[in-house]
């Protein structure tokens, strides 16, 4: 039984980093003429209201997209991300947040494809409504971690797989690595972005070691921490492990991450990591 609802967390500091990276990756794919396929194994509801319901419970978006909304000094890549969210808030008030499926949908060209998996029956209905009629997009009410393998390699031979689980179960940390290994075996040239939270640093160390010893090459990690590691206050940092990133990503993150760390983090204890987990 799934209890996680992304609506509580939409637009928080973790979404900001994840969606900026997603945007960078898809912009890179869009630079070449050949079509690409994007697979989102844990799509969520797509469109999130920030002015009512779950989002107001802890107002997590206030220390995320909320802190970027009115600023005029955004680094370029951050400005492009905020602009995407502004397109969904035409009156200038921040009332909607776009999840990964809607961000990806905006980056698709006519020839590109987007495949979305969502297991929660309520969220899959929201997702279907928020995507609307779009021949480029396929939505599966199914387990993305198990079933996305069947889509690989995509006929386009160019593609991104975003893996963004809720980590409700501790076994998720092992399952994601096994899924990545299996997917990479089928589609070794694909780009993969695995999101992770930092709740208990020991789990992350185990996850990183498992990737490092998996045999997969060319792996980068980017992480933003808004508070020091602790096991007592829930998620204090989050990041992405990216296989086969575009060569431009590290340089872009070297500009973006220090800036985000200052703007979203607690003075003195916030931090970022940009690390090569496995060389090419
Ligand atoms: C972190 S949220 C996704 C957020 C979304 N990717 C975004 O960035 O906007 C995780 C979602 O995965 C769904 N989920 C959990 N396990 C799943 C699975 N095995 N396959 C597909 N969806 C799953 C949950 O219902 C939840 O909506």
The total number of structural domains is 1
- Rg result: 17 Å
> What sort of overall outline do the alpha carbons produce when their principal axes are compared?
globular
Ligand species: S-adenosylmethionine
Task: Describe the protein.
The chain is of the alpha/beta class and 280 residues long. The chain has a single domain (6-278), classed as Vaccinia Virus protein VP39 (Rossmann fold, 3-Layer(aba) Sandwich). The chain has helices at 13-30, 55-58, 65-68, 76-87, 100-107, 121-131, 144-147, 172-186, 201-212, 249-264, and strands at residues 37-40, 47-49, 96-98, 113-117, 137-140, 159-163, 191-198, 219-225, 237-243, 271-278. The strands form two sheets. Strands 5-4-1-6-7-9-8-10 form an eight-stranded mixed β-sheet, sandwiched between helices. A two-stranded antiparallel sheet has the order 2-3. Helix 1 (13-30) crosses helix 4, helix 1 (13-30) runs parallel beside helix 5 and helix 1 packs antiparallel against helix 10 (249-264). The longest helix has 18 residues, at 13-30. The model has no long low-confidence stretch (mean pLDDT 95). It binds S-adenosylmethionine (SAM). S-adenosylmethionine (SAM) binds at residues 2, 4, 6, 18, 40-44, 99-100, 117-120, 123, 143-145, 164-166.
């Amino acid at each position: 039984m799934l209890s996680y609802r992304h609506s509580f967390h939409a637009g928080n500091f973790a979404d900001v980093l994840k969606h900026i990276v997603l945007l960078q990756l898809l912009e890179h794919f869009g630079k070449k003429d050949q079509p690409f396929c994007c697979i989102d194994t844990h799509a969520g509801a797509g469109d999130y209201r920030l002015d009512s319901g779950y989002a107001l419970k802890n107002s997590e978006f206030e220390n995320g997209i909320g802190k970027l909304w009115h600023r005029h000094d955004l680094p370029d890549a951050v400005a492009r991300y905020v602009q995407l969210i502004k397109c969904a808030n035409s009156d200038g008030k921040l009332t909607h947040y776009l999840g990964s499926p809607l961000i990806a949908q905006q980056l698709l060209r006519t020839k590109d494809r987007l495949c979305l998996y969502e297991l929660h029956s309520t969220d899959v209905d929201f997702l279907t409504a928020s995507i609307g009629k779009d021949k480029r997009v396929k939505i599966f009410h199914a387990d993305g971690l198990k079933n996305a393998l069947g889509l690989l390699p995509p006929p386009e031979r160019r593609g991104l797989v975003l893996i963004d689980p809720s980590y409700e179960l501790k076994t998720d940390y092992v399952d994601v690595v096994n899924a990545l290994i299996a997917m990479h075996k089928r589609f070794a040239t694909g780009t993969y972005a695995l999101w992770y939270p930092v709740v208990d640093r020991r789990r992350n160390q185990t996850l990183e070691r498992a990737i490092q010893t998996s045999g997969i090459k060319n792996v980068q990690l980017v992480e933003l921490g808004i508070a020091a590691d602790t096991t007592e206050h829930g998620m204090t940092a989050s990041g992405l492990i990216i296989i086969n990133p575009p060569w431009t990503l590290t340089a872009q993150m070297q500009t973006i991450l220090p800036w985000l760390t200052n703007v979203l983090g607690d003075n003195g204890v916030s931090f970022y990591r940009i690390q090569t987990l496995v060389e090419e």
